[in-house]
Amino acid sequence: CRAFMYSIDGDEFEEIYNNYQIVNYYMESKPIIRIHGLGMIDININNKKFKVDVNKEVYIDSELELAYKTVDDPFNLIEGDFPVFEKGMNKINYSGNVFKFEIKPRWRCL
Predict the structure, then answer these.
(1) Is 71 left (phi over 0), alpha (psi -120 to 50) or beta?
(2) pLDDT tens across 37-67, in order?
(3) Closest CA to 65 of 50, 47, 45, 46
(4) How far apart are CA 9 and CA 13, in angstroms?
């Protein structure tokens, strides 16, 4: 049972550029990240680092703690923990061969 409600303003993917800062006005949230790219991608959110291997496209679902290209083919992160957005300012950095980096924040409240 999940006791959270989700704000509709956090239910769409938005493109995020490197060194981006996103503000969370709600409580801690567990986003979905969609990366279009190729090879090993290093991601740093609030000084918490993780890596994922991307072959064209990958989804990183922090709530389910899964990474996948399709829902039938889940795998885990190469290194690190699944990211969360803390209340307040959240800084996002990434490196590697990234074509497009998108986040659906899934802002949560009680």
Answers:
(1) alpha
(2) 999 999 999 999 999 999 999 999 999 999 9
(3) 50
(4) 10
